Amino acid sequence: MNAASPEVLSALRACVGEDRVLVDAGALEHYGRDWTRVHPAAPLAVVLPGSVGEVQALVRLALERQLALVPSGGRTGLSGGAVACQGEVVVALDRINQITDFNPVDRTVRCGAGVVTAQLQAFAQERELFYPVDFASSGSSQIGGNIATNAGGIKVIRHGMTRDWVAGLKLVTGTGELLDLNRGLVKNNAGYDLRQLVVGAEGTLGIIVEATMRLARPPQDLAVLVLAVADMAAVMRVLEAYQSAMDLQAFEFFSELALQKVVAHQGLQRPFDTVAPFYALLEVERGSAADMEQAMALFEHCAEQGWVLDGVVSQSVAQAQALWRLREDISETISRWTPYKNDISTTIARVPDFLAEIEAVVNEAYPDFEIVWFGHIGDGNVHLNVLKPDALPMAEFQQRCSEVSRWVFEIVQRYEGSISAEHGVGLLKKAYLHYSRSPLEIQIMRQIKQVFDPAGIMNPGKIFDA
Amino acid sequence: MNAASPEVLSALRACVGEDRVLVDAGALEHYGRDWTRVHPAAPLAVVLPGSVGEVQALVRLALERQLALVPSGGRTGLSGGAVACQGEVVVALDRINQITDFNPVDRTVRCGAGVVTAQLQAFAQERELFYPVDFASSGSSQIGGNIATNAGGIKVIRHGMTRDWVAGLKLVTGTGELLDLNRGLVKNNAGYDLRQLVVGAEGTLGIIVEATMRLARPPQDLAVLVLAVADMAAVMRVLEAYQSAMDLQAFEFFSELALQKVVAHQGLQRPFDTVAPFYALLEVERGSAADMEQAMALFEHCAEQGWVLDGVVSQSVAQAQALWRLREDISETISRWTPYKNDISTTIARVPDFLAEIEAVVNEAYPDFEIVWFGHIGDGNVHLNVLKPDALPMAEFQQRCSEVSRWVFEIVQRYEGSISAEHGVGLLKKAYLHYSRSPLEIQIMRQIKQVFDPAGIMNPGKIFDA
């Protein structure tokens, strides 16, 4: 890694102020990586602009000096999209974190890119509204990063992805110009919806500096059901039965091994004594007595069919929260085994066959490894986690996993699925992009990047190589 | 207009078959225009491909012979997006109209681009599902055209635009290649979502040949409320009161003049004796007795505040349909006055001030004209219709209207609104695009078109000039 030259540092300081350029080892390490730990952080410098104008000045400087920029939010990503490992300048949006222009009629609010997800959630709650995109990292992820990665999470089945809540956004392009896209309108069919292109582009088209986010009416009193399910096909039957009768707020699943791990390490109770291959967690709005009667009638039906072997319904908010922990704590619980994660999807109907094929490959390839399955099965999205045996050196584990990834992605391709359902591509999945996107699609993406970023300074090397 | 050369006709016939190339005056007229009547139809020929392969062959031929292509659906558009007035070859998708691969678990279905909206609605209904995008032209508009224009309509407040129901689409690009975008996945964060770019691009990026459409659980028993409202600001208060308490299926408005016209010409009854400046039409799901009690309590509240002067609630399906006609029949009713239409939007909260400013301009400019207001006020989208006085010649009427359009669009620009909320840009709004989109945005759109259509053969001259 080259150290930043005095000239470059001085020019960066002229853009954002003396104290807003960081080059100490701690800052470079902190701002140069995300939740992945595969690529060592190696940025040239970290800058903390305080305004849109400062971001534009930084981009113009980067053009002059041929500096690569990495836009940086909460860095909670799981694919290396915000990693700076090649002497880039990290542009951290932390200081552009104001919430302004709350509009109760449109139910929108303007957020600086650096607004933390939980900050927006709390802002909404104080106004008896609701920001429904929620996931484990909501305490540190930022709105700009959520948009750049089109973050998903545990409420997608009911409320969609981050994309669905972006009413407008401002982007500083690779030429330093400012695009103000859609401006909070519900309806705007005046030309291409460029906003949609920026959502999920992982910072490769420019730096998101501001967004107008939509808020929702808060859900009423929620009930959580955890069901023991006979097999994967039955999980899908239960989903279909509930979904045809009522709006589900969530439909998650996890395997017996996931449950065992989370119970053993988080001090939680099993929901019931019955042991089953899989468990489904459903959340429904307890709108009226009739709604809960319907939820219970569906449970009876699923039990009669032999799909469901046991179940429990939350009777209080505290019990609902305790049941949610069985699912939500899995990721943290298994992190001690530094799992190799795949975040894959197919259409919902094909999930049972898809999982059976992947399980066969994985069990053959890793007879000695523990495999933990969980995920957003109501969206066709499963997380495949291979746990590292304690005795196995990390490098050898990574090596064996990446070999098997190819076989897994061949199955994903055969099922016309996605190699990254919600985590994005970043650096970690770049080599596998062609399993989900055709050569023509990848070529078009490259050309679109050139339109927004002709000098190739915006998060270069992420998603695809130039 | 030049007639097609024998060589070109012979080459077109080689692509799609002898009987599938039409050049008679009736066909050229029928397939060369949409619901606008501003530009005379003047296509070179009309072709009716029966497969994706035939569409690709046509595009390759167009590249060789430098033919411009106009993709053509039901041609119910209101902005001239599907008009062929410059010797183009119309590629009508009528024959690619199969519905296949119904997937009850994902609630998706694969539609040829030529599937008529009502055909999809009926298909869904037969399976106890629901295709929620609905508008006046559903009996002849086609799915491919709906996607190309991101069609909206009367259920947007609850169910969104066509964009929200496209789970995947296939596009033949301007180079004759086939893109298969998103393939029905709920979650797919593997690179740019090119599907979103195609939705609303009005055929300028290629020809949509197939789409995977999502279906919904059907709404339960619906109740319709029509309310007499004191003024425009009160309309917004009523919207806010209802929307903060319940999910609205629709929230439409129309003016007293609109009501008078529709009652006089459609043989309908006024909903009540009270005369008010505006009327709001609300649709709510009659989920339970509690829901209707809430709807009535909100009505009482709005009446106490002086916002609502009178109201009626449907007591039967027949009465609900009769109330809907007061709103839905407006467009057809006023068509006898060949209205000059503007389809504009701003954020919802700004609608009262926005309408007041536009009304002042329009009333000053057209003291002798009747102005009919109606639209999807719950989305911030209003239709401004200027009726032609019987005595005024058409050319003079068009001339006076287009002068005033400039003043209207200056207000739209000041309110950061859209010059085309749902009808698209096509030919009719092209000259006004810069009131809603910046020069940089328009430049980016042009460059993106070049990526998909380097030879410029796909619906050239629509939205913007090359």
Layout of SSEs?
2 copies of one chain form a homodimer.
Chain A lengths: L5 H11 L4 E2 L2 H8 L12 E3 L4 H14 L3 E4 L16 E4 L6 E5 L4 E5 L4 H10 L16 H6 L7 H4 L6 E8 L4 E4 L12 H5 L7 E9 L7 E8 L2 H12 L4 E8 H11 L11 E8 L3 H16 L3 E6 L3 H12 L1 H5 L5 E6 L5 H15 L4 E7 L4 E7 L6 H21 L24 H14 L14
Helix pairs in contact in A: 1-3, 8-10, 13-14
Protein name (chains A, B): D-2-hydroxyglutarate dehydrogenase
Catalytic activity (chains A, B): (R)-2-hydroxyglutarate + A = 2-oxoglutarate + AH2
Family (chains A, B): Belongs to the FAD-binding oxidoreductase/transferase type 4 family.
Describe this structure as you would to a colleague.
Chains A, B: Belongs to the FAD-binding oxidoreductase/transferase type 4 family. Chains A, B: Homodimer. Chains A, B: Residues 39-218 form the FAD-binding PCMH-type domain. Chains A, B: One of its GO terms (molecular function) is (R)-2-hydroxyglutarate dehydrogenase activity. Two copies of one chain form a homodimer. With 466 residues, chain A is an alpha+beta fold. The first copy, chain A, folds into four domains: 6-95, Uridine Diphospho-n-acetylenolpyruvylglucosamine Reductase, domain 2 (2-Layer Sandwich), CATH 3.30.43; 99-214, Uridine Diphospho-n-acetylenolpyruvylglucosamine Reductase, domain 3; 222-331, Alpha-Beta Plaits, CATH 3.30.70.2190; 338-435, Alpha-Beta Plaits (2-Layer Sandwich). Chain A has helices at residues 6-16, 25-32, 52-65, 117-126, 143-148, 156-159, 194-198, 232-243, 256-266, 289-304, 317-328, 330-334, 351-365, 394-414, 439-452; strands at residues 21-22, 45-47, 69-72, 89-92, 99-103, 108-112, 166-173, 178-181, 206-214, 222-229, 248-255, 278-285, 308-313, 340-345, 370-376, 381-387. In chain A, the strands form three sheets. The first copy, chain A, has a seven-stranded antiparallel β-sheet with strand order 13-10-12-11-15-16-14, with helices on both faces. Chain A has a five-stranded antiparallel β-sheet with strand order 5-6-9-7-8. The two termini of chain A are 22 Å apart. The relative contact order of chain A is 0.12. The mean pLDDT of chain A is 95. Chains A and B meet through strand 8, helix 7, helix 8 and helix 15 of A and strand 8, helix 7, helix 8 and helix 15 of B.
